[in-house]
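tool=predict chain=A
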Amino acid sequence: MSYSKRYHERIAIHYSGSVSYRYPASQNGGSGSAHYSGTVYEDVNVNINVDTNPFDRSVSGCKTSVNALTGAVVATETAQIASIDKNSKKVANTIVSGFFDYIRSDISQQIMELSQKIDAHLLHMRELAKNCASKQKQMETDYNRISTRYLKIFDDLNNELENRIFELDKPAFVFKRGIDSHSNRTSDNDLVSTVAVFGREGGELQAKISASVAKKRALDAINQANIFLWKQKKLQSTINQSMLNESATATRFSPVCFVETSSEQDQIGQNVYHADFLPKTNSNELIEKFQTQSWANGTKEQKNKIQRYFNSEVSNAYNSANQHEERVKNMLVKIFNINSIQFA
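tool=predict ok
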């Protein structure tokens, strides 16, 4: 926008100088100089007309250029923000998908390894079950053979005991037989009336002596019978402790394997595996008992028993000098963790 400006100022001007002069001769003539000085004041008026139209036009053009530049910068910034957001989302999606793909791959690999281990353990358990069944049949055969032999021995012992008791008490039996025959003879013949007094006294004395001897021998026989019965009971107890199948009521234990798996579609699978010789049971009921069972760490004595049993089984299963079996044995011992076992 054009404008005008007026300035008024009074300026003081100082002056000084000297002038030489000559004057004509009148009498003598001559020359001289004169000095002068002073101040003169002058009023100065300045009118300034400023034409800003070209500047205004250039400013307007610059404003238009700046506005266009501002719009371009804003558009560029918006595009940059959108590009940064889009690229950050791509990077985030790539990182997340890569992380989950890695986790999924790792979990799948672990599931495959665990499945192979479980299959191996199940095969081993099936082999152990077959061995147990074969050993059970063998023990049944051995038991029948041993029981038959011992029944024969017991029959022979009974016969021998009967013979020995008869031999030990043979005078008593002979005396009994003699008494019976004498009683029959004395009561059935004609001499009963003549030997009544002698028969009474002699019979009483002989009866007392015979009864005393019979009691002594009977006591000895009872003691021998008690010893025999005690030995027979001890033998029966030893046999009962050594037998699996017996008539007494008992509890048999067998391992049951509960496996819970998760597929890639997050589907949970639950299975129960047990030995073939066990009766068929409801798997859902067993699974519910497993899930509702409260588990806790066992005592030191229980852990020691399991550790000894595990070491014994591993030593019996892998007792050769084969390098493969030795590696398997070392890996089993390394994997086994007694502290991770919980008891109901």
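Residues 67 and 73 are 10 Å apart (CA to CA). Strands lie at 3-23, 30-50, 256-262, 268-274, 296-297, 342-343.
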